[in-house]
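note to self — DONT lose this again. spent like an hour looking for the file last time. sequence + predicted structure for the chain T wanted, 168 res
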Amino acid sequence: MTTATAPATKSVTSAEGRDLILTRHIAAPRERVFRAWTDQEMIVKWFTPAPWKTASARMDVRAGGSTEVVMESPEGQKVPNPGVFLEVVPNEKLVITNAYTSAWQPAEKPSGPGFFMTFVLTFAEENGGTRYTARVRHWSIADREQHEQMGFHQGWAIATEQLAALVE
Protein backbone atom coordinates (compact mmCIF):
# COMPACT_ATOMS: atom_id res chain seq x y z
CA MET A 1 0.00 0.00 0.00
CA THR A 2 1.21 3.48 -0.83
CA THR A 3 -0.12 6.54 0.95
CA ALA A 4 0.18 10.24 0.18
CA THR A 5 -1.32 13.48 1.37
CA ALA A 6 -2.31 15.42 -1.70
CA PRO A 7 -0.47 18.76 -1.92
CA ALA A 8 -2.37 21.71 -0.39
CA THR A 9 -5.33 19.53 0.61
CA LYS A 10 -6.57 17.73 3.69
CA SER A 11 -7.23 14.55 1.72
CA VAL A 12 -5.15 11.42 2.07
CA THR A 13 -4.95 9.08 -0.90
CA SER A 14 -3.55 5.58 -1.16
CA ALA A 15 -3.36 2.52 -3.38
CA GLU A 16 -4.17 -1.01 -2.18
CA GLY A 17 -4.09 -3.79 -4.76
CA ARG A 18 -6.53 -2.79 -7.52
CA ASP A 19 -8.08 0.01 -5.42
CA LEU A 20 -7.39 3.71 -5.14
CA ILE A 21 -8.62 5.30 -1.92
CA LEU A 22 -9.21 8.85 -0.79
CA THR A 23 -10.29 9.83 2.69
CA ARG A 24 -10.94 13.17 4.34
CA HIS A 25 -12.75 14.57 7.34
CA ILE A 26 -15.32 17.14 6.18
CA ALA A 27 -16.70 19.53 8.80
CA ALA A 28 -20.31 19.10 7.72
CA PRO A 29 -23.09 16.64 8.54
CA ARG A 30 -23.00 13.48 6.45
CA GLU A 31 -26.48 14.25 5.11
CA ARG A 32 -25.07 17.37 3.45
CA VAL A 33 -22.03 15.53 2.03
CA PHE A 34 -24.24 12.70 0.74
CA ARG A 35 -26.61 15.25 -0.86
CA ALA A 36 -23.67 16.89 -2.65
CA TRP A 37 -23.08 13.52 -4.36
CA THR A 38 -26.75 12.84 -5.17
CA ASP A 39 -28.21 16.25 -6.06
CA GLN A 40 -27.54 17.05 -9.71
CA GLU A 41 -27.56 20.80 -9.03
CA MET A 42 -24.94 20.42 -6.29
CA ILE A 43 -22.61 17.92 -7.98
CA VAL A 44 -21.97 20.26 -10.94
CA LYS A 45 -20.53 22.80 -8.49
CA TRP A 46 -17.70 20.62 -7.20
CA PHE A 47 -17.25 17.26 -8.98
CA THR A 48 -14.62 18.08 -11.60
CA PRO A 49 -11.19 19.37 -10.55
CA ALA A 50 -10.49 22.88 -11.84
CA PRO A 51 -9.67 24.03 -14.47
CA TRP A 52 -12.08 21.42 -15.83
CA LYS A 53 -15.77 21.87 -15.01
CA THR A 54 -18.88 19.75 -14.79
CA ALA A 55 -21.08 20.69 -17.75
CA SER A 56 -24.14 18.70 -16.64
CA ALA A 57 -25.38 15.86 -14.44
CA ARG A 58 -28.45 13.67 -14.33
CA MET A 59 -29.14 11.09 -11.67
CA ASP A 60 -31.76 8.51 -10.78
CA VAL A 61 -30.51 7.81 -7.25
CA ARG A 62 -31.66 4.24 -6.54
CA ALA A 63 -30.16 0.79 -7.02
CA GLY A 64 -30.29 0.23 -10.78
CA GLY A 65 -30.80 3.93 -11.49
CA SER A 66 -28.61 5.57 -14.09
CA THR A 67 -26.29 8.52 -13.72
CA GLU A 68 -24.33 10.61 -16.17
CA VAL A 69 -21.90 13.35 -15.27
CA VAL A 70 -20.45 15.26 -18.21
CA MET A 71 -17.04 16.83 -17.61
CA GLU A 72 -15.71 19.62 -19.81
CA SER A 73 -12.06 20.41 -20.51
CA PRO A 74 -10.73 23.98 -20.57
CA GLU A 75 -10.75 23.64 -24.39
CA GLY A 76 -14.47 22.79 -24.38
CA GLN A 77 -14.19 19.02 -24.99
CA LYS A 78 -17.08 17.23 -23.26
CA VAL A 79 -16.43 13.85 -21.65
CA PRO A 80 -19.60 11.96 -20.63
CA ASN A 81 -19.32 9.54 -17.72
CA PRO A 82 -22.41 7.30 -17.65
CA GLY A 83 -22.98 4.69 -14.99
CA VAL A 84 -25.42 2.93 -12.71
CA PHE A 85 -26.02 3.07 -8.97
CA LEU A 86 -25.47 -0.44 -7.57
CA GLU A 87 -26.27 0.39 -3.95
CA VAL A 88 -27.79 3.42 -2.25
CA VAL A 89 -27.96 3.66 1.55
CA PRO A 90 -29.15 7.22 2.27
CA ASN A 91 -26.53 9.33 4.07
CA GLU A 92 -24.22 6.32 4.50
CA LYS A 93 -23.11 4.69 1.25
CA LEU A 94 -23.19 4.93 -2.55
CA VAL A 95 -21.84 2.30 -4.93
CA ILE A 96 -21.62 3.36 -8.58
CA THR A 97 -20.08 1.66 -11.63
CA ASN A 98 -19.41 2.60 -15.23
CA ALA A 99 -19.63 -1.07 -16.25
CA TYR A 100 -23.36 -0.53 -16.91
CA THR A 101 -25.00 2.32 -18.80
CA SER A 102 -28.63 2.14 -17.64
CA ALA A 103 -31.21 -0.39 -16.51
CA TRP A 104 -28.50 -3.02 -16.00
CA GLN A 105 -27.35 -2.80 -19.64
CA PRO A 106 -23.64 -3.64 -19.80
CA ALA A 107 -21.46 -0.94 -21.32
CA GLU A 108 -19.88 -2.00 -24.60
CA LYS A 109 -16.60 -0.40 -23.64
CA PRO A 110 -15.47 1.79 -20.78
CA SER A 111 -16.56 5.39 -21.10
CA GLY A 112 -14.64 8.44 -19.98
CA PRO A 113 -11.29 7.22 -18.67
CA GLY A 114 -11.06 4.09 -20.83
CA PHE A 115 -11.40 1.45 -18.09
CA PHE A 116 -14.17 0.02 -15.96
CA MET A 117 -14.33 0.92 -12.28
CA THR A 118 -16.67 0.85 -9.31
CA PHE A 119 -16.84 3.65 -6.73
CA VAL A 120 -17.66 2.75 -3.13
CA LEU A 121 -18.38 5.99 -1.28
CA THR A 122 -18.99 6.01 2.46
CA PHE A 123 -20.13 8.82 4.74
CA ALA A 124 -19.55 8.17 8.46
CA GLU A 125 -20.20 10.48 11.40
CA GLU A 126 -16.91 11.59 12.94
CA ASN A 127 -16.04 14.41 15.36
CA GLY A 128 -19.11 16.48 14.56
CA GLY A 129 -18.60 16.07 10.82
CA THR A 130 -18.19 13.36 8.21
CA ARG A 131 -15.43 10.87 7.46
CA TYR A 132 -15.76 10.74 3.67
CA THR A 133 -14.06 7.77 2.00
CA ALA A 134 -13.96 7.05 -1.72
CA ARG A 135 -12.67 3.62 -2.71
CA VAL A 136 -12.30 3.26 -6.48
CA ARG A 137 -12.08 -0.39 -7.49
CA HIS A 138 -10.49 -1.32 -10.81
CA TRP A 139 -10.66 -4.52 -12.84
CA SER A 140 -6.86 -4.85 -12.89
CA ILE A 141 -3.65 -3.42 -11.45
CA ALA A 142 -2.90 -1.99 -14.92
CA ASP A 143 -6.23 -0.10 -14.87
CA ARG A 144 -5.46 1.23 -11.41
CA GLU A 145 -2.02 2.35 -12.52
CA GLN A 146 -3.53 4.04 -15.58
CA HIS A 147 -5.96 5.91 -13.31
CA GLU A 148 -3.05 7.00 -11.11
CA GLN A 149 -1.15 8.23 -14.18
CA MET A 150 -4.25 10.22 -15.23
CA GLY A 151 -3.95 12.10 -11.94
CA PHE A 152 -6.26 10.31 -9.47
CA HIS A 153 -4.37 11.44 -6.37
CA GLN A 154 -4.27 15.12 -7.29
CA GLY A 155 -7.59 15.30 -9.19
CA TRP A 156 -9.75 13.53 -6.62
CA ALA A 157 -8.10 15.53 -3.82
CA ILE A 158 -8.87 18.81 -5.61
CA ALA A 159 -12.47 17.75 -6.23
CA THR A 160 -12.82 16.72 -2.58
CA GLU A 161 -11.56 20.12 -1.44
CA GLN A 162 -14.19 21.69 -3.72
CA LEU A 163 -16.82 19.39 -2.18
CA ALA A 164 -15.74 20.42 1.34
CA ALA A 165 -15.82 24.11 0.43
CA LEU A 166 -19.38 23.69 -0.84
CA VAL A 167 -20.79 21.87 2.19
CA GLU A 168 -18.78 23.21 5.14
